[in-house]
Known about the structure:
The longest helix is centred in the middle third of the chain and has 29 residues, at 106-134. β1, α1 and β2 (38-43) form a beta-alpha-beta unit. Helices cover 44% and strands 14% of the residues. It starts with 13 loop residues before the first strand and ends in a 7-residue tail after the last strand. The chain is globular, with a radius of gyration of 18 Å. It contains eight helices and seven strands, in the order βαβαβαβαβαβαααβ. It has a single domain (14-191, 221-244), classed as NAD(P)-binding Rossmann-like Domain (Rossmann fold). It has helices at 23-34, 46-58, 73-83, 106-134, 156-176, 197-200, 203-212, 221-232, and strands at 14-17, 38-43, 62-67, 88-91, 139-143, 182-188, 243-246. With 253 residues, it is of the alpha/beta class.
Amino acid sequence: MTLAAPDFRLDGRRILVTGASRGIGRAIALAAAASGAEVVIAARRRAGLDEVAALIDRDGGRSTTLPFDAADAADIRRAVAMAGPLDGLVNNAGSVTREPFLEASESEMDRVLGLNVKGATIVAQEVARGMARAGTKGAIVNIASVAGLVGARNRSLYAATKHALMGLTRAMALELGPLGIRVNAVCPGLVNTPLAADLMADEAFVAATRKRIPLGRIMEPDDIAGPAVFLLSAASSGITGIALPVDGGVTAE
């Protein structure tokens, strides 16, 4: 019997990563490129994308920048059509909102639901349609949150969007599985990113949070990149419809 190592590489694959100019999306784009993928890096602002592309190119990787607004349906459809054939998607673009439930405004509902749910759905739909037309056995990774698995105080709207994204992930897995398209979700806990800068600046909050995390530390973007690349790779070829928490063990309790 010949021993065969699991294939964690992404050579020959084209992967679209949304929200790739900073934070988790940036780390995933860099990790996917380092694993051999051609990465289509997308975000609203070109400046951040150019910086990520330069890092990929410097290390001999391949990338294409694709600025678009992941909350604008027409812009999403234009951009995905421009992206060309894709083998994978990391649906990462999103926003967070923090306010007590009784104070949540209608304008915030529209903003956060529009990006985190409607926008994410349309991106996934357009990419999956392209895969289906081409007969591509692709992989889609939705970046959800542990707030999509449990409740979250003072983040009711955000939690609602991530619970919706988990429902979408499971339903997509059921419908797209027969086409050979796998769909999974990575669910980060608190991650040290620009979106969490206000929380990370609160030393008391950070200290209290670390005490609640079994691993004793707050996650970094690279902690999320590895699981995302795994779920894009052939090493996870039998996995679809899962929620993979990356939270230092918080949801184990």
